[in-house]
Amino acid sequence: MDNRHFDIIVVGGGPAGLMAAIAAAQQGRSVCLVEKGKRLGKKLIISGGGRCNVTNRLPVEEIIAHLPGNGRFLYGAFAQFNNEDIIRFFQERGVQLKEEDHGRMFPVDDRSTTILHTLEKELQQLNVQLIMNDPVVKISFSPLPFTLELSSSHFIRSKSIIVAVGGKAVPETGSTGDGYAWAQAAGHTITPLFPTEVPIVSRSNIIEGRELQGLSLRNIALTVYSHKGKRIITHRGDMIFTHFGLSGPAALRCSQFVVKELAKVPEKPVQMEIDLYPDHSEPQLMEEITQNLAQEGKRSIRNLLKPYIPERMINPILGFAQIQPDIIGDSLQQKAWQELVHLLKHFPIAVHGTLPLEKAFVTGGGVSIKEIDPKTMGSRLLPGLYFAGEILDIHGYTGGYNITAALVTGYVAGLHAAQWVQGDTCNY
Question: Among 278, 295, 314, 428, which has the minimal tally of Cβ within 10 Å of its Cβ?
Fold first, then answer.
């Protein structure tokens, strides 16, 4: 059996683990990175549609705002290593990045492998020891040093451990929730896990009838309401109707709020609304339609609405308004037109849940941040233990925010684990 000793062991070969190992090794510590799979960076490879949205160039305040799951916890970490440092890290190693809409940063060659190979090369140059395809079976936190038992029956030991194994979303990349049990064994609290950035499920007639399946809507506003009728959140963007509900960027961003509202009153559906004209007020839209009506009023309602609504939505909207599609526009009363315009701004849909956590892009919940030092990512309960990435109770929207949080927390955990080891006077 092996009896190898390292200053620091990093568990998990995703973005957080890779950056943690690099940061620790840069401080001159002996570092071992353990990855249970055959390849590093599986989730990184598929991120951004295979192009790797490696970070976001918005100001830090805005990035924090796009991390609705405890993003403010990261202020201390961003003060040490932020999105501009991520950009500089890759550019200094020959990777040119480009900025796209909403501050999203991608490698110029649009290849996620470029990002991964850069990180792998840095590990090699820093002499980080890799153990691949050998899952951790158990972590013993006491007596010191920390001891990891691997599935190969080998044991490795260290003064410090950084757990960066991700959450439970996208399990085919290796994120199967292994780290939660280890965190609990060390005394940590795991806040309830839930899916975020996940398609929304609806059992309403309009979805189950599949008349809108596959229809994409561009630049709409999607709103989630509480059971008391109060607006919770509105997100602008594209969405698509599926055979089970709603997907696309706007729906994914709303999903966590659907989950949280359903948790309060599980037996009642959550009400959502689609605004097809988020840049128009109802009076503005009414005026535009009235002008068109003066010229085209002898046409049917169905034909009059075609310039304003995707054709497949006309019948559902007219159904809600209880208007026959073949009625002539001139014969419709002003009040009925106002109801139609209101529906263009407030098209209702009842939703009943989301796809499961395993189908989500991001995990909500995780190791409680109350038990983590925000300046170091170190455990407040057990010196020498650190956490980074999605295993923490931190989550954001898609758009480079989650990978930014992973790289930032990974770097800070690696840096401070190395400093802790250097200052530790114990001889294990």
Answer: 295
